[in-house]
Amino acid sequence: MATLVDEKHSADEKISSAHEKPLPDAASNESPGLGKDFVDENAIIITGEDAAAYLLPMRDDGDPALTFRSLFLATGLSAFQAVMYQIYAFKPTNVSIQGTFIVLIAYFLGKAWAFAFPRGDLHLARWQSKDLEGKPPLWISIASFVNPGPWTLKEHAICSITATSASAAVASVEVFTAQKLFYDMPLTATTVICTTISLGLFGYGICGLLQPITVWHVEAVYWSCLPTVKTLQGLHWQSVKNSKPLRWFWYCFGGMFFYEFFPSYIWPWLNSVSIPCLASKNTTGSTAKTLTNLFGGATNNEGLGLFTLSFDWQYITSFQTSLPLTLQLHMAFGYFVCFIAMLAIYYTNT
Question: What pLDDT digit, counting tens, does each position of 110-122 carry?
């Protein structure tokens, strides 16, 4: 009897173990039954380790990243991004240009390049189908060099990373701007170019030394970069027909594109709407000045801008929406402390 019970117990264990599914490894990007090329949509992202394990797949299509097309577009977009960042940095209200903006521009330019120029892969496949011997003609090699095939994710990423890195030069230019405006110091183009390059190389060297902390660590998740990465993957790995998130992305993109004409050109007051200021627009004297110091902020150096609403996507951007709620609460607390400190400094004249 004991033997029969033991055999039945062992058989039940085998059946139950056969129906059990292995849990995904927290250190990998694999989902149950999906593999490393997919992410687990049911996973709850709480920590940086969760984001590294479940949020982004480890898919690699093996496409070349450094091509003539990617380097050419990356160079042009770097110049464009650097100029745009300089312009926005010296506006009365500083506006940061997010990576998603340059991702979309690079996407359209890359698609246009792949469509406008002769496709080297198509001509090579057509030539090989004729069973010809020897090397392909020179014009096919040139076409493959200029336009190797469809616009790929890695080429797209090279353009985005290069252009975003070029925009970081605004920090060094501010030094030269202060020297020119406030100290009237003569500057040459050679000095500015060499200094900017040396600062960039020094910064990249420091980042290389700190890779174990800033890159390899499991908690080293740069939340503001996640929208850019997900946009890149969605544009290349998903289709509008089969992907609901991608469809909604293009719906929102089109809506925001046409909506932006209203706050930029038609109704600029949408940039900053302050209910307390509108409610007290007839107030004069010291009361009006106090209200302006507290709730004003539509123009530069006007006030703290408390409880001010903005309906302009140019100022809202996508940066804040990608941050964890805990980090947003910490930032809000920091802003609150700064508000109190600025009021104390201003009214005590210290």
Answer: 999 999 888 888 8
- Measured CA distances, 233 to 52, 131, 229, 305, 346 (Å): 15, 37, 6, 37, 48
d(CA 168, CA 186): 24
- Please tell me the distance from the alpha carbon of residue 345 to that of residue 350, in angstroms, as a whole number: 5
What's the DSSP call for residue 318?
A: S
d(CA 97, CA 81): 8
The pTM assigned to this predicted structure is 0.71
Neighbours of 106 (CB within 10 A): 26
Q: Which residues, 6 or more positions from 186, have their beta carbon under 8 angstroms from its beta carbon?
A: none
Candidates 298, 306, 302, 296; CA nearest to 332 is 306
User: Can you tell me which residue has the tokens 């849990």?
Assistant: 23
pLDDT tens, 41-74?
677 777 777 777 777 777 888 888 888 999 999 9
Look up residue 317 and give its amino acid: T
Cα separation of the two ends of the chain: 91
**Token pair of 104 as six digits:** 């979309």
Q: How many CB atoms lie within 10 A of CB 239?
A: 9
Q: Which residues contact 293 (CB under 8 A, 6 or more apart)?
A: 303, 304, 346
Across-strand partners of 31? 35
What single DSSP character describes residue 31?
B
Q: Where are the beta strands (DSSP E) in the chain?
A: 273-274, 308-309
Q: Distance between alpha carbon 119 and the CA centroid of its chain, in Å? A: 30
